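User: I'm putting together a small comparison set for a docking exercise, and I want a reference complex before I start. The sequence is below, and the ligand is zinc ion. Could you produce the 3D structure with the ligand included, as structure tokens?
Assistant: Of course. I'll restate your input first, then give the structure tokens for the complex.
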Amino acid sequence: MARIAIGGFQHETNSFAAHRADYGHFAQHRDRPPLVRGAELLASLRGNAFATSGFLDALGPDDVPVPLVWASGGAGGTVTDDAFERIVGEMVGELSRQLPVDAVYLDLHGAMVSTTFEDAEAEILRRVRAVVGAAVPVVVSLDYHANLSPAMVEGCDGMAAYRTYPHVDRPETGQRAAALVRALLARGRPAGRAVRHLPFLLPVDFQSTLCEPSRSVVAWTPPQPAAIVSATYAAGFPPADTAWCGPAVAVHAWTQVDADAAADAYLALVSARETAFHVRLWDTDAGVREAMRLADGASRPVVIADTQDNPGAGGSGDTTGIIAALLRHGARDAIVGFLCDPGAAAGAHAAGVGASVTLDLGGRHGPPGVAPLHGQFRVLACARGPFTMTGAVTGRSVADLGAMALLRCDGVDIVVTSRNVQAYDPAPFDRLGVDWTTRRIVVLKSSCHFRADFEPRAAAVLTVLAPGAYDPDPRRYPYRRLRTGVRLLPRGAP
Ligand SMILES: [Zn+2]
């Protein structure tokens, strides 16, 4: 029998976003369960689409899961000290009450920054180690966008990071973490750890594993697998202002010699592909005009990725630059998903389906260049309350985006929500009766996750720039903590 403590605390922090991720943000139900603890943690994550879900599935009949606390905040601005201390405090406090445990599994992100701790996961691991002592193995699962740090790699005994972007392998990642726990319970904590950082940053737009070079990077296996506990590649999350921001590889192995050798080999593989990391980014007007041109004669929609307002990278989900450009150029039969404006949604519900409302839509959270869109909108549909997501990334999760409305302004329809969510799942369209596949142009506030469900049914995908909290060009970030000597884009990028 093995008692395995299970906890999770995830946030992908955009240090340059103005808003803060407070405790209420983690406690709120949006497109993932709100903060859960104890038996509720097991009930809400079992059979769900998260790494913890896969971990629980993979436990054997003799394993006793010891649930601590689990909270996932998606992405956004810096995590407040209050949120960090309350959640980590509860996790570590419950862990100390539940001792002894045989192993610890933590479902982390790897790119969390709190007001006090730039390397927040390393701090979580430090506190967990202090509670469980030197003998108990600690295994983590991580997001593909983790910014691996030496302290993070040192602070755990094995890592399993997502190997897909869009992230469609979260449960499988949890299953791999469970296999790591099993190996470490049999053999003890490993002696070897190594981490190697690439000397450049990768915008998330360049990181999709649906294409090269990332596809072959995540498929790498060490030459001597028996010597290795885990070999991890993480592409990094550039808007996190930390010393160890950027792509890196990490290896846990039974000996230090084997850890170093495998990490060097993995580093060489990624380094050799540096110039291949690249995706074209269109200016707003050129991108919208190109989408309209491609839509003429296409039998399927042209998808525009509004990458700079991707809530999954810290976007406020309410910018209006691409909508304004669609209206300016007279686009027809376009649909936008999903714009977060609780006031507009409430106004639409109050007016009712069929009514016309005058609104200053969205555009309330900056950055410079973002403004509300003033106009008259017809209310085409309204909805409210929980619904089930259906896509490959969020599959089977229950979402609640509050009051939702479908608004029309000239040739552009807009799905308005009351809670901010990345447009990576078609379910919010379905909720309002929209068949997005019949539209000429579909705008999605997402950088890459949308590709899992939308790209296979699109005529083309264009990544289009318009002001938003996520800037895909790290050369414009006012880094304060990034280590010196890092190229802010890979060689070969324009
Ligand atoms: Zn991610």
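The first helix runs from residue 23 to 27. The pocket of zinc ion is lined by residues 143-145, 167 (CB under 6 Å).
User: Thanks, that's exactly what I needed.
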